[in-house]
Amino acid sequence: MELAPTRRSVAPLVVYGPLRSGTTMIRLMLDGHPELIAPGESDFLFDHLQARAGSWRYDVPALAADRIYQDNPVQMKKHLAGDATLRDMVQQIGRYGQGRPVLMLHRHLSACADLMPSLRVIRLLRDPRDVARSSIGMGWAGNLFHGLDPWLETERSWREFASNHPHVPQHVLRYEDLVTDPKGELLKICKFLGITYTDDMLSYPSRTSYAPPDPGLVFQWRKKMSDRDVQLVEARAGSFWEGCGYERSGMPPLHLSAADKRRLWLQNRAYVWRHLIRRHGPVAPILRGLGRRLRLRRLEHAAAARIARNDRNYLK
After folding, report:
1. Mean pLDDT value across residues 203-211
2. Which of 83, 136, 185, 296 suits 278 as a labelling partner, its CA being 20 to 30 A distant?
3. CATH of 13-219, one of 3.40.50.300, 3.40.50.1820, 3.40.1550.10, 3.40.630.10
């Protein structure tokens, strides 16, 4: 059923952080507040939105093939221009003024701020060494050097945003602080937003399959990573480590040759492909890769849709 728009337009809240940084947990907490609506991941809003000749347009077939869009309650209205379509979908998330829409983003923050300048931002941080470890567990990377790649993408986008939009209101939230003192951190967030804290924000384990905050999950790298693994992550981060909110380990910096980096790249690609084939079989990943390389969009989107259908079986 299509929701009828009202005249009220509510500025969104953006929670911005790397993958595997606790975005699902904070989303569920925020969604428990009666004034906030946080239905899920939101990168699809910007992944397929392109600036062309001074205007914005959606790549409609790519958006339609996006699993996150497919699983989201919003619907694109094709008669609107790209930027108007975006704003309408954001207001759909907020149920056209019934609550403040919460967007969960890992990239594209500058574009978001350009198109919705009245937004507020929560910057979610997590120790990069734990982010890299978690990426391997998800099958996104085959070693810790490349396990940091999603974090790097988010950091690059954040720094572009911070440079171009210094006056956007922002609040910094560390994953480690959230899981050790969830109520205290949520009180700070509510103050930032000008709303009243409610204990319903911590009731999500009773309405979802997700466990309550576990302080045992913080700084696991200290016990589960070798010295060389830590050095690999810190080497990969390079200058992006400065300003990320965490201190280096103090270990001697690791200097990698071009041959070392090539071996790590090959190891990473082999692991990712093995993971894809174990989960989806060989056909769909290969066809998706061929479609991308040869720019055969129908082939790519059909294979991506097949992978998306199978991915749903692994969702929590």
Report:
1. 92
2. 296
3. 3.40.50.300
